[in-house]
UniProtKB/TrEMBL annotation:
Presence of keyword Transmembrane helix: yes
CDD domains for the chain: TM_PBP2
Domain ABC transmembrane type-1: 76-285
Gene3D superfamilies: MetI-like
InterPro entries reported in the protein's UniProt record: ABC_transporter_permease (IPR051393), MetI-like (IPR000515), MetI-like_sf (IPR035906)
Alphabetized SUPFAM superfamilies for the sequence: MetI-like (SSF161098)
One of the protein's GO biological processes: transmembrane transport
Keyword flag Mitochondrion: no
Protein name (database record): Sugar ABC transporter permease
GO cellular component, one term: plasma membrane
Membrane topology label: Multi-pass membrane protein
Segments traversing the membrane: 12-32, 77-97, 109-130, 158-182, 264-284
Subcellular location, record wording: Cell membrane
Natural source organism: Paenibacillus lycopersici
Length: 294
């Protein structure tokens, strides 16, 4: 059918098709749900009734005044702290595996492999590792004389750091690959010239490597912050928010409010608050990185 049309008409139809169809999908599955989410946040709705009573800002007042809702954000700090260490480790391994190391392709694969594993499967795997009585970690610590009776998932003080360490193991390889790609884009002539001028490895890292991967560091910190704020699967599968709600995250609280207490209006308000919080945090991060970049 298109063959009977002129080249200009064919070109116009193809351009419109590749433009309009993605735009329709974007409006249907992204912008419309966002607008509806904001609308529901100002209502009282149980998820079933056709009646959606308008209650104004009451849901938002409840979010910020109820420490059980907004206070769980403090549990996400452990994931952010471990995420920073994860990025540092990823940069280190990327630099090492970008050099002349025998078997580096094998080590790249080995470090990246955890990322492609299913998140739920990883959670169950580490459930056996951190088990108090028969866990492999406690058995190892007991064998080398370093105790072995620690309740890794049962302590309110470090349960979130235990869970975050699983994220370290799973996502460090992904960040490493991104840094590795950035390192391979740096011309080797820069390092050769620096070596001739007597620059040490540390100076080459500070004045050549770091400035050239600065934007990639910013990207990975963006992923780290959003991941820390939106973590869900690890605490949900391993602890279900325990002990005594110590590992419950904000996203878990949203789902609990919506599906357990059937308060979709309040859950929508919590989701909007999370969205705004992510935007604010990332704007601050962007401001900090842009100033340092200058």
């Amino acid at each position: 059918m298109l063959s009977n049309l002129s080249f200009k008409k064919q070109r116009l139809i193809i351009i419109l098709g590749f433009t309009i169809i993605p735009l329709i999908l974007l409006l249907t599955f992204s912008y419309y749900p966002t607008v509806e989410l904001i609308h529901l946040s100002f209502t009282s709705w149980d998820g079933m009734s056709p009646d959606k009573s308008w209650i104004g800002w009451d849901n938002y007042r409840e979010v910020f005044s109820n420490s059980e809702l907004f206070g769980v954000f403090t549990h996400n700090f452990a994931y952010f702290a471990v995420g920073i260490v994860q990025n540092i480790a990823a940069i280190y391994f990327a630099i090492v595996l970008n050099g002349k190391l025998k078997g580096k392709l094998f080590f790249r694969l080995l470090l990246f492999l955890p990322y492609i594993l299913n998140g739920v499967a990883v959670s169950y795997l580490f459930g056996y590792v951190f088990d108090t009585t028969n866990g492999s970690l406690n058995l190892l610590l007991h064998a080398i004389g370093l105790g072995g009776d620690t309740s890794w998932l049962g302590s309110e003080h470090f349960v979130n750091y235990t869970l975050a360490s699983i994220g370290f193991w799973k996502f460090m390889g992904f960040n490493m690959v991104i840094y590795l790609a950035a390192l391979q884009s740096i011309p080797a002539d820069l390092y050769e010239a620096a070596s001739i001028d007597g620059a040490t490895g540390w100076k080459q890292f500070l004045y050549i490597t770091l400035p050239n991967i600065y934007k990639i560091i910013e990207l990975n910190f963006f992923l780290t912050v959003t991941g820390a704020l939106e973590v869900f699967d690890l605490p949900f599968v391993l602890t279900n928010g325990g002990p005594a709600g110590a590992s419950e995250t904000y996203v878990m609280k949203i789902l609990e409010t919506a599906f357990q207490f059937n308060n979709y209006g309040l859950a929508s308000a919590m989701s909007v608050v999370l969205l705004l919080f992510v935007v604010i945090v990332l704007s601050i991060q962007r401001l900090i990185f842009s100033r340092k970049g200058d």
